[in-house]
Write a structure and sequence with these properties.
Elements: H1 15-18, E1 29-33, E2 36-42, E3 55-60, E4 66-69, H2 75-98, H3 102-132, H4 137-206, H5 211-216, H6 220-246
Antiparallel strand pairs: 1-2, 2-3, 3-4
Helix pairs in contact: 2-3, 2-4, 3-4, 4-6
């Protein structure tokens, strides 16, 4: 049927169900009409599906017979469907454990969110199915398995977020430490520049005269000593100002 290509043509669904089906599977849900149960489910999301959800449908007719598509087997097919979710969650859990960078944690979180939503809706559909057919013990088991998967994917999502937050915080701490070291080195260079600035200024002034005249000058050593003394004074002023700024 063109409206719902994901429904096998051999399934004799009542018109009350068929008229509610669209061209895509839509949200995961349970349809319960005229003794027919139709579970509209999503296959486990992958990176390759480009956010287009592939359908997994399970039908129970009034006689109590179960059928499923695309995986056959009825309830056995539904068991395999849940097993695919379990495998996908386990792979994400391993990816979280091996992640070491914020980018790796982000990649895991990007894959976790759609799988988390799909798992939650899968559990809701199975819970509704459990209420519709309380005599089906296998549905109870599958419902419980879906609940366990929902908790498992929540833990994976929490671990991925915690890992990314810790990695970002650690990176920020390392950057702050590097900036502090750079500031400390800059202060040392500023103090050295402050110490030699007066002396360099005096040398520059004297440098305009021939060297033999400078060394013969009686005040050369006095000027040199004054330059060193002024250097200490300026250095002390810069050091005190730096300590006050740190406070």
């Amino acid at each position: 049927m063109e409206r719902a290509a994901y429904i096998p043509k051999t399934w004799e669904l009542p018109e009350s169900i068929r008229k509610r089906l669209g061209t895509s599977v839509g949200k995961q849900r349970l349809m319960n009409e005229d003794g027919h149960l139709l579970l509209l489910l999503h296959q486990a999301p992958t990176e390759e599906d480009d956010e287009v959800r592939r359908a997994m449908v399970v039908w129970r007719n009034p006689a109590g017979e179960w059928k499923s598509s695309p995986a056959s087997g009825g309830i056995s097919g539904l068991e395999g469907h849940i097993a695919f979710y379990q495998t996908a969650i386990h792979k994400l859990d391993e990816a979280v454990e091996s992640a070491v960078t914020a980018r790796q944690y982000f990649d895991v979180m990007r894959r976790v969110h759609p799988l988390h939503r799909a798992t939650r809706h899968l559990f809701e559909v199975l819970q509704a199915t459990r209420q519709a057919v309380p005599e089906e013990s296998r549905i109870i088991t599958l419902r419980d398995q879906a609940a366990d998967l929902d908790r498992a994917i929540e833990l994976v999502a929490a671990d991925a977020k915690a890992g990314m937050d810790f990695t970002l915080a650690e990176s920020a701490s390392q950057q702050a430490h590097a900036a502090d070291v750079a500031n400390h080195e800059a202060r040392r260079l500023n103090r050295l520049a402050a110490f030699f600035f007066p002396l360099v200024t005096l040398v520059t002034v004297f440098g305009m005269n021939p060297p033999e005249h400078i060394f013969k000058s009686s005040g050369f050593w006095v000027v040199l000593a004054a330059g060193v003394l002024l250097g200490f004074v300026v250095y002390s002023i810069v050091a005190v100002a730096g300590r006050k700024k740190d406070r």
